[in-house]
Amino acid sequence: MPTVGTTIKRLDGTRLNGSRFIVPFDHDSGLTLLLVFSTNCHFCDLNWPQWSLVTRSLEGRAVRVVYINLNSKLTSDYLGQHGVTEGQVYDQLDPREQVALNLYVTPLTVLLDANGRVGHVWVGALGETDLAQLRSELARELSR
Prior knowledge:
By secondary structure, the protein is an alpha/beta fold. It has a single domain, classed as 3-Layer(aba) Sandwich (Glutaredoxin). The protein is 31% helix and 27% strand. The mean pLDDT is 92.
């Protein structure tokens, strides 16, 4: 799981269609919410409704939402079931970034600041307390 305080400069990998996908971090990037999943993870299945609630509440806000698939076969049908557009999704993350962020378990919900610093990490299915904390952190960061 990512360590709070870890900073990365960018995420690099490929989309479902095989094209390269790079997300840079600099002081103008704004917040980034990483949603890390696997298509064969039961707890990820439980998390999708909560993730959908959070992402819908962020529409029009200065938060970049990025999905990362770990170690599973991803299809456009799977993404469609969860209302996710392919342009926001890493089908495969560069192994260097996977190691730098210590991404080996799913589901993970990770909040990064504009400079790519990990601010908070939620592991597993999000419960009501986790959702409240995530919303609070997003509101606090967006008010800065």
